[in-house]
Structure formats: C-alpha cells, structure tokens
Predict the 3D structure of the following.
Amino acid sequence: MSVNTDGKMLTNEEREMVRDLILLPYIDTLVAKSLKEVEHSGNLLSRSYILTGRYIQKRIIQEVYQLRQALKQRNIKVVEDTQDDFITYSIIYNRGYQERFGITRDVMRTEISLRLNKYTTELGEVLKDHLK
C-alpha cells in the first residue's frame, strides 16, 4: 500500500479502504442475521452454513482490523454520519482535512454481494486445498 504524502486528497486506494471499512460492518450484520435464521431452521446442512458464516465473520474482523491500522498510519479517521433512504454518509478526517463520503444503497448492495462472493470463493479454495 502506498502512502499519500501531500496530505490533501485521498488516493483512490484510500477511498477504497474507507469504502470497505464502511461496508464491512453491514456485511457482518447480514451474516449474523442469516446465521440466526439458519440456527433455528432445522436445515440438514445448517452446521455447514454456520461454519461458512463464522468463517466470513472471522475474515471481516481481520479486514476491519487491518483497514483501521492502515488508515491510522495514514492519519485518516472515518466516523459514521447520517443515513437516509438511499445514501449512507460518513465523515472522513484526512490529515487535517474533512470531507463527507456517501455510498448509495445500490452501490452497497453490489459491493456486499461481491465481497460475500470473494469470501465464499476463498473458503472454497481452502476446502479444496484441504481435501487434496
């Protein structure tokens, strides 16, 4: 990861980091809700679904920690701001500057879907390697 030294604008990489830091708690909430539903479903494969959900939650925790550390090193802080029906806003304190960052619900849905796909693909690779 490169570090922005001019101090004014967020780099594209930093914007992606901020976006991910905002999205990951939403993904965790969705996974936790799904886990509760599965636990009470009596589904034959519920144990497998629960293990998958816990794997995803573990990866989310790891990523949030890594993102917070990386942003802290860059002197960037992200604070939840407001939410309306279509956009979630956060305030970014960036090396002495401040800006408002918004993500639309449609973008959030797409990014969450992509991230969940990434995690399940990762888990599939781990299982495939383990079963060799």
